[in-house]
């Protein structure tokens, strides 16, 4: 169903109200809800988190926009709370991590297939194979430290096998920057894709930085330290594809449009009727925000907001298993590396390239992601389900 | 707590056989990138274990407090029990709140029995608090054992305070708490006996008596909750056979 975001005005800002009880609704079910319900919750938390982050940055640089930004930000803050609090308390930090990586795999794969710019589609596929590998490493951690099967969260939608090994994802900063789209010629979907994936990756980074120290096991603490570093690289990559010459007001409009697009995508596929009603409510709230900012664009910036916005939203995000696309990408592109904004084969990386030198330094005492998954084969019900011919723990001195 | 109808558990692989078949098949196409097994994790863990600093230190008696050579292990364990009894009181408060908020038909659990346990947990906390003070310690200090038992019981608090868990589901958490509590009081009694502190032995034995009663009651509730479920009891089995 198409949505005309210029005509649909949604819920006016002054009618967007909450109570504390409204913010804290019954959570989704870890056991009974579809995996993609949790995927949507985690992504939309990231989208709202980006809305608040951008709003603060914008306020710090634009005195005349501070009040309208603060007004909308209050609503975004409470929307983020309501959405994030839909995660249930029995979903542990590591299980939530599995959902974060499922978001990064399935949503990025959908975006990569819908991206009309071939270079940016390549950027998404490049990042995808790295997050795909994180899923494998975290699954090994979950199995080997907690004795749990990550597939009870994934529900068989997403593979648990190695991608581009995390230990080779470490790059020098100059190899993380990409070329931006051109704001004047890029398709609307290109801008929405970039904001969506950047928001998701930024939230993933912040989440790992928050929960990493909550683990007791040094294996987990090291693995989160390593993967959080990659997520930081991913934020660097994805923010660099957004045209930096967009004005603050243009960026604000695009943020609101991306929120509308994302809630609208959730509405199309949500299987839990109670949560679908939340997506519908917040779609209306975001349309209200968009029209509020359109008026500011007209009245304060003296610009026609329609020039920045698509009349109709492009195809929604495809919330379904992208297994075949991911596997095909893995077969063809696992050996890609980056040199500046371009992608090269690993054979072209010189021994003295900045990324190789950086990687050597960081992995000098070994890579936690390699160690945690040493010989790891995902098995239904955990690797302990495999019949063994030797005792499970070898008593060897490791000093 | 609403009835759990028209819901479906989605965690197992049998629910989506085709998707699961593909997942298993993928494992053979994309093998591991590093060799070893779960014992390899010790290459990270061992150096940390060997270089680790303790969780914390046992607090010394405050200046001017009694210094009669109380062994550190007793200070540590008294702090642990105090912390556990204090959290235990809150666990039973949460349980009582849940019990009186829902209507559990034919429940063998009487709110007054829960209140009774709750009060005794609080009395044990107050008794320990007074005892630590009399022994020259600081009952507000967190000993390492108290901290560790706090980590252990954090899961119990999560289970008890989750609005979604039923009264029956909470009983397992209470049983875990009571089993640990019971053994801990036995150990305290043995420690005080070894130290020749008869006045402490008396207090610990009294506490153990009431803890025995708590354990017996909670065990009874756990059993009743499982054995009276439809299809389990002899009565319900004969009913369904006739029906």
What does this structure look like?
The complex is a heterodimer of chains A (399) and B (243). Chain A has 399 residues and is mostly helical. Helix content of chain A is 57%, strand content 2%. A two-stranded antiparallel ribbon of chain A has the order 1-2. In chain A, α4 packs antiparallel against α5. The longest helix of chain A has 29 residues. Chain A is globular, with a radius of gyration of 22 Å. The model of chain A has no long low-confidence stretch (mean pLDDT 96). Chain B starts with 16 loop residues before the first helix and ends with a helix. In chain B, α3 runs antiparallel to α6 and α6 packs antiparallel against α7. Chain B has a domain of 156 residues: Ferritin (Up-down Bundle), CATH 1.20.1260.10.
Topology at a glance:
The complex is a heterodimer of chains A (399) and B (243).
Chain A: H1 20-23, H2 35-61, H3 66-84, H4 93-114, H5 118-146, H6 151-154, H7 188-211, H8 218-240, H9 248-269, H10 273-299, H11 323-333, E1 336-339, E2 342-345, H12 354-362, H13 368-372
Antiparallel strand pairs in A: 1-2
Helix pairs in contact in A: 2-3, 2-4, 2-7, 2-9, 3-10, 4-5, 4-7, 5-8, 5-11, 7-8, 7-9, 9-10
Chain B: H1 17-29, H2 42-51, H3 72-101, H4 111-134, H5 144-161, H6 167-194, H7 198-227, H8 234-242
Helix pairs in contact in B: 3-4, 3-5, 3-6, 4-7, 5-6, 6-7
Search tags:
heterodimer, A: 399 residues, mainly alpha, two-stranded antiparallel ribbon, 13 helices, B: 243 residues, Ferritin, 8 helices, 67% helix
Regarding quaternary structure, how should these chains be classified? heterodimer
Q: How many β-strand stretches of chain A?
A: 2
Please work out how many helical segments of chain A DSSP would assign: 13
Round the Cα radius of gyration of chain A to an integer and report it.
22 Å
Q: Helix/strand/pairing class of chain B, anyone?
A: mainly alpha
Return the average pLDDT of chain B rounded to an integer: 92
What is the percentage of strand-forming residues of chain B?
Answer: under 5%
Helix/strand class of chain A:
mainly alpha
Remind me, CATH topology of the domain at 72-227 in chain B?
Ferritin
Order of helices and strands of chain B: HHHHHHHH
Separation of the first and last Cα atoms of chain B: 29 Å
Strand order of the largest sheet of chain A: 1-2
The CATH architecture of the domain at 72-227 in chain B comes to: Up-down Bundle
| Major beta-sheet overview of chain B | none
What is the class of the domain at 72-227 in chain B in the CATH system? Mainly Alpha
Distance linking N and C termini of chain A: 62 Å
CA-based shape of chain B: flat
- Count of helical stretches of chain B: 8
Which two chains share the most extensive interface? A-B, 52 and 41 residues
């Amino acid at each position: 169903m198409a949505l005309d975001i210029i005509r649909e005005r949604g819920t006016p800002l002054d009618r967007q109200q909450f109570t504390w009880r409204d913010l804290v609704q019954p959570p989704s079910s870890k056991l009974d809800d579809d995996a993609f319900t949790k995927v949507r919750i985690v992504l939309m938390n990231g989208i709202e988190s980006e809305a608040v982050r951008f709003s603060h940055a914008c306020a710090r640089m634009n005195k005349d926009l501070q009040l309208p930004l603060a007004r909308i930000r209050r609503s975004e803050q409470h929307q983020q709370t309501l959405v994030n609090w839909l995660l249930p308390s029995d979903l542990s930090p590591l299980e939530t991590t599995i959902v974060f990586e499922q978001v990064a795999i399935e949503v990025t794969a959908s975006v990569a297939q819908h991206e009309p710019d071939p270079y940016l589609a390549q950027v998404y596929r490049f990042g995808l194979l790295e997050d795909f590998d994180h899923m494998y490493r975290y699954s090994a951690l979950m199995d080997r430290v907690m004795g749990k099967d990550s597939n009870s969260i994934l529900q068989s939608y997403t593979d648990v096998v190695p991608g581009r090994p995390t230990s080779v994802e470490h790059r020098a900063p100059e190899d993380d920057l990409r070329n931006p789209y051109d704001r004047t010629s890029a398709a609307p979907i290109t801008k929405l894709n970039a904001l969506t994936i950047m928001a998701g990756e930024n939230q993933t980074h912040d989440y790992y930085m928050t929960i990493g120290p909550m683990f007791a096991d040094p294996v987990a603490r090291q693995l989160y330290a390593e993967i959080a570093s990659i997520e930081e690289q991913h934020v660097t990559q994805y923010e660099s594809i957004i045209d930096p010459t967009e004005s603050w007001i243009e960026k604000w409009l695009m943020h609101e449009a991306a929120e509308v697009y994302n809630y609208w995508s959730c509405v199309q596929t949500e299987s839990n009727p109670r949560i679908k009603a939340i997506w519908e409510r917040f779609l209306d709230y975001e349309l209200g925000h968009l029209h509020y900012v359109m008026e500011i664009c007209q009245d304060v910036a003296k610009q026609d907001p329609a020039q920045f916005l698509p009349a109709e939203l492009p195809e929604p995000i495809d919330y379904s298993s992208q297994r075949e696309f991911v596997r095909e990408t893995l077969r063809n592109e696992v050996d890609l590396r980056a040199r500046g904004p371009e992608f090269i084969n690993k054979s072209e990386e010189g021994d003295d390239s900045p990324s190789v030198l950086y990687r050597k330094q960081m992995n000098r005492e070994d890579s936690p992601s390699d160690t945690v998954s040493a010989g790891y084969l995902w098995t239904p019900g955990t690797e302990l389900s495999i019949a063994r011919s030797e005792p499970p723990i070898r008593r060897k001195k490791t000093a | 707590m609403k009835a759990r109808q028209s819901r479906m558990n989605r965690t197992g692989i049998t629910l989506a056989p085709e998707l699961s078949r593909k997942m298993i098949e993928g494992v053979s196409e994309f093998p591991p990138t590093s060799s070893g097994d779960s014992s390899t994790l010790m290459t990270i863990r061992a150096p940390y274990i060997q270089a680790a600093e303790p969780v914390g230190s046992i607090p010394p008696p405050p200046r001017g407090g009694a210094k009669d050579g109380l062994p550190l292990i007793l200070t540590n364990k008294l702090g642990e029990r105090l912390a556990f009894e204090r959290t235990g009181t809150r666990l039973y408060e949460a349980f009582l709140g849940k019990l009186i908020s829902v209507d559990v038909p034919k429940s063998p659990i009487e709110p007054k029995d829960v209140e009774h346990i709750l009060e005794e947990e609080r009395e044990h906390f107050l008794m320990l608090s007074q005892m630590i003070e009399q022994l020259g310690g600081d009952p507000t200090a967190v000993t390492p054992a108290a901290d560790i038992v706090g980590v252990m019981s954090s899961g119990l608090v999560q289970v008890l305070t989750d609005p979604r868990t039923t009264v029956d589901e909470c009983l397992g958490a209470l049983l875990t708490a009571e089993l640990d509590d019971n053994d801990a009081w036995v150990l305290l009694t043995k420690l005080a006996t070894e130290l020749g502190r008869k006045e402490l032995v008396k207090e610990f034995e009294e506490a153990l008596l009431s803890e025995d009663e708590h354990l017996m009651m909670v065990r009874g509730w756990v059993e009743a909750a499982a054995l009276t479920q439809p299809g389990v009891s002899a009565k319900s089995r004969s009913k369904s056979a006739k029906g």
